[in-house]
Write a structure and sequence with these properties.
The protein is mainly α. It contains ten helices and no strands. α5 packs across α10 and α7 packs across α8. It binds zinc ion.
Protein backbone atom coordinates (compact mmCIF):
# COMPACT_ATOMS: atom_id res chain seq x y z
CA UNK A 1 0.00 0.00 0.00
CA UNK A 2 1.40 3.36 -1.03
CA UNK A 3 1.77 6.43 1.18
CA UNK A 4 -1.15 8.22 -0.55
CA UNK A 5 -3.48 5.21 -0.02
CA UNK A 6 -2.56 4.93 3.68
CA UNK A 7 -3.20 8.64 4.11
CA UNK A 8 -6.61 8.27 2.41
CA UNK A 9 -7.67 5.40 4.73
CA UNK A 10 -6.48 7.37 7.76
CA UNK A 11 -8.54 10.44 6.66
CA UNK A 12 -11.60 8.26 6.12
CA UNK A 13 -11.25 6.71 9.59
CA UNK A 14 -10.99 10.16 11.18
CA UNK A 15 -14.08 11.35 9.29
CA UNK A 16 -16.08 8.26 10.35
CA UNK A 17 -15.03 8.70 13.99
CA UNK A 18 -15.99 12.39 13.86
CA UNK A 19 -19.38 11.47 12.45
CA UNK A 20 -19.95 8.98 15.31
CA UNK A 21 -18.92 11.60 17.89
CA UNK A 22 -21.27 14.19 16.37
CA UNK A 23 -24.13 11.66 16.31
CA UNK A 24 -23.46 10.77 19.96
CA UNK A 25 -23.45 14.48 20.86
CA UNK A 26 -26.83 14.90 19.15
CA UNK A 27 -28.28 11.94 21.08
CA UNK A 28 -26.91 13.22 24.40
CA UNK A 29 -28.35 16.69 23.74
CA UNK A 30 -31.71 15.16 22.82
CA UNK A 31 -31.66 13.44 26.24
CA UNK A 32 -30.92 16.79 27.89
CA UNK A 33 -27.23 16.22 28.70
CA UNK A 34 -24.78 19.03 27.89
CA UNK A 35 -21.03 18.44 27.54
CA UNK A 36 -20.18 20.38 30.73
CA UNK A 37 -22.85 18.53 32.68
CA UNK A 38 -21.52 15.17 31.52
CA UNK A 39 -17.96 15.99 32.54
CA UNK A 40 -19.06 16.90 36.07
CA UNK A 41 -21.40 13.96 36.47
CA UNK A 42 -20.07 11.47 39.12
CA UNK A 43 -22.19 8.61 37.79
CA UNK A 44 -23.99 8.12 34.48
CA UNK A 45 -27.18 6.06 34.17
CA UNK A 46 -28.12 4.50 30.82
CA UNK A 47 -31.58 3.77 32.29
CA UNK A 48 -32.20 7.45 33.10
CA UNK A 49 -31.04 8.44 29.63
CA UNK A 50 -33.39 5.88 28.06
CA UNK A 51 -36.33 7.34 30.04
CA UNK A 52 -35.33 10.87 28.94
CA UNK A 53 -35.19 9.85 25.28
CA UNK A 54 -38.38 7.79 25.45
CA UNK A 55 -40.36 10.55 27.12
CA UNK A 56 -43.11 10.22 29.75
CA UNK A 57 -46.52 8.86 28.84
CA UNK A 58 -49.47 7.76 30.90
CA UNK A 59 -49.94 4.03 31.46
CA UNK A 60 -53.18 2.51 30.25
CA UNK A 61 -55.49 1.33 33.02
CA UNK A 62 -55.99 -2.16 31.54
CA UNK A 63 -52.28 -3.06 31.41
CA UNK A 64 -52.46 -5.22 34.56
CA UNK A 65 -55.45 -7.11 33.22
CA UNK A 66 -53.63 -8.09 30.01
CA UNK A 67 -49.95 -8.14 30.97
CA UNK A 68 -50.34 -10.17 34.18
CA UNK A 69 -52.82 -12.58 32.71
CA UNK A 70 -51.87 -16.26 32.98
CA UNK A 71 -54.63 -17.35 30.63
CA UNK A 72 -54.22 -18.93 27.22
CA UNK A 73 -52.62 -16.62 24.60
CA UNK A 74 -55.71 -16.92 22.38
CA UNK A 75 -57.93 -15.74 25.28
CA UNK A 76 -55.65 -12.77 25.90
CA UNK A 77 -55.56 -11.91 22.20
CA UNK A 78 -59.36 -11.82 22.17
CA UNK A 79 -59.39 -9.81 25.40
CA UNK A 80 -57.12 -7.21 23.78
CA UNK A 81 -59.41 -6.98 20.76
CA UNK A 82 -62.42 -6.52 23.06
CA UNK A 83 -60.65 -3.80 25.10
CA UNK A 84 -59.82 -1.94 21.88
CA UNK A 85 -63.40 -2.51 20.62
CA UNK A 86 -61.95 -4.30 17.57
CA UNK A 87 -64.24 -7.34 17.66
CA UNK A 88 -66.35 -7.45 14.50
CA UNK A 89 -69.75 -7.29 16.12
CA UNK A 90 -72.95 -7.26 14.09
CA UNK A 91 -73.17 -3.47 14.45
CA UNK A 92 -69.89 -3.26 12.52
CA UNK A 93 -70.72 -6.00 10.03
CA UNK A 94 -74.02 -4.27 9.20
CA UNK A 95 -72.13 -1.14 8.11
CA UNK A 96 -70.13 -3.32 5.69
CA UNK A 97 -73.29 -4.99 4.39
CA UNK A 98 -72.17 -8.44 5.65
CA UNK A 99 -75.28 -9.03 7.79
CA UNK A 100 -78.88 -7.89 7.44
CA UNK A 101 -79.40 -6.60 11.00
CA UNK A 102 -77.37 -5.53 14.02
CA UNK A 103 -79.42 -7.34 16.67
CA UNK A 104 -77.48 -9.21 19.36
CA UNK A 105 -76.76 -12.85 18.42
CA UNK A 106 -77.87 -13.96 21.92
CA UNK A 107 -80.90 -11.94 22.98
CA UNK A 108 -81.90 -10.56 19.58
CA UNK A 109 -83.32 -7.41 21.17
CA UNK A 110 -80.47 -4.88 21.31
CA UNK A 111 -77.76 -3.63 18.95
CA UNK A 112 -74.78 -5.93 19.23
CA UNK A 113 -71.64 -4.11 20.39
CA UNK A 114 -68.67 -5.18 22.53
CA UNK A 115 -70.18 -3.39 25.53
CA UNK A 116 -73.49 -5.20 25.03
CA UNK A 117 -71.90 -8.63 24.64
CA UNK A 118 -69.56 -8.03 27.63
CA UNK A 119 -71.74 -8.13 29.78
CA UNK A 120 -74.83 -5.97 29.33
CA UNK A 121 -76.65 -8.70 27.44
CA UNK A 122 -78.86 -10.72 29.82
CA UNK A 123 -77.45 -14.01 28.55
CA UNK A 124 -73.73 -13.18 28.75
CA UNK A 125 -74.30 -11.28 32.02
CA UNK A 126 -75.90 -14.45 33.48
CA UNK A 127 -72.84 -16.51 32.47
CA UNK A 128 -70.46 -13.89 33.87
CA UNK A 129 -72.35 -13.62 37.15
CA UNK A 130 -72.22 -17.38 37.65
CA UNK A 131 -68.49 -17.40 36.89
CA UNK A 132 -67.93 -14.63 39.42
CA UNK A 133 -69.83 -16.40 42.19
CA UNK A 134 -69.00 -20.05 41.55
CA UNK A 135 -65.36 -19.78 40.54
CA UNK A 136 -64.29 -16.77 42.49
CA UNK A 137 -66.76 -16.18 45.32
CA UNK A 138 -67.33 -12.60 44.12
CA UNK A 139 -70.89 -11.64 45.02
CA UNK A 140 -71.05 -8.07 43.69
CA UNK A 141 -73.32 -7.04 40.84
CA UNK A 142 -71.89 -7.48 37.37
CA UNK A 143 -70.62 -4.19 35.95
CA UNK A 144 -70.63 -2.82 32.45
CA UNK A 145 -67.63 -3.56 30.22
CA UNK A 146 -65.63 -0.48 31.18
CA UNK A 147 -66.42 -1.13 34.84
CA UNK A 148 -65.26 -4.76 34.69
CA UNK A 149 -62.01 -3.79 32.93
CA UNK A 150 -61.39 -1.11 35.54
CA UNK A 151 -62.23 -3.46 38.42
CA UNK A 152 -59.81 -6.07 37.07
CA UNK A 153 -57.14 -3.43 36.66
CA UNK A 154 -57.48 -2.08 40.18
CA UNK A 155 -57.85 -5.44 41.97
CA UNK A 156 -54.41 -6.91 41.55
CA UNK A 157 -52.98 -7.11 45.06
CA UNK A 158 -54.43 -10.42 46.27
CA UNK A 159 -52.21 -12.78 44.33
CA UNK A 160 -54.28 -15.90 43.71
CA UNK A 161 -57.90 -14.64 43.65
CA UNK A 162 -57.11 -11.66 41.43
CA UNK A 163 -55.02 -13.79 39.07
CA UNK A 164 -57.96 -16.21 38.79
CA UNK A 165 -60.30 -13.28 38.10
CA UNK A 166 -58.11 -12.02 35.25
CA UNK A 167 -57.86 -15.48 33.71
CA UNK A 168 -61.60 -16.07 34.09
CA UNK A 169 -62.40 -12.77 32.44
CA UNK A 170 -60.14 -13.55 29.46
CA UNK A 171 -61.69 -17.00 29.18
CA UNK A 172 -65.25 -15.61 29.41
CA UNK A 173 -64.60 -13.04 26.69
CA UNK A 174 -63.08 -15.72 24.44
CA UNK A 175 -65.90 -18.24 24.89
CA UNK A 176 -68.67 -15.65 24.60
CA UNK A 177 -67.11 -14.50 21.33
CA UNK A 178 -66.78 -18.10 20.09
CA UNK A 179 -70.45 -18.68 20.87
CA UNK A 180 -71.43 -15.45 19.11
CA UNK A 181 -69.48 -16.58 16.02
CA UNK A 182 -71.10 -20.01 16.10
CA UNK A 183 -74.59 -18.47 16.25
CA UNK A 184 -73.86 -15.91 13.58
CA UNK A 185 -71.94 -17.93 11.00
CA UNK A 186 -73.01 -21.51 11.70
CA UNK A 187 -76.65 -20.59 12.33
CA UNK A 188 -76.44 -22.30 15.74
CA UNK A 189 -79.32 -21.39 18.09
ZN1 LIG B 1 -77.91 -9.46 23.86
Amino acid sequence: MGKAERCGIWMLTVLMDNKKILKTNETMEAAGYGEAELIQMPRFSIHKMYIQLRGVFSKVTWRRLVCNNKGSPKWIFMLRLAIHAKLLTKAKLLKWGVVQDAECSFCNTTKESVAHLMFECNISAGVWKRLLVIWQGVTRQTLNWQGEVLWASTHHKRKTPDAVYRMTMASAVYHIWQEQNARLFKQKQ
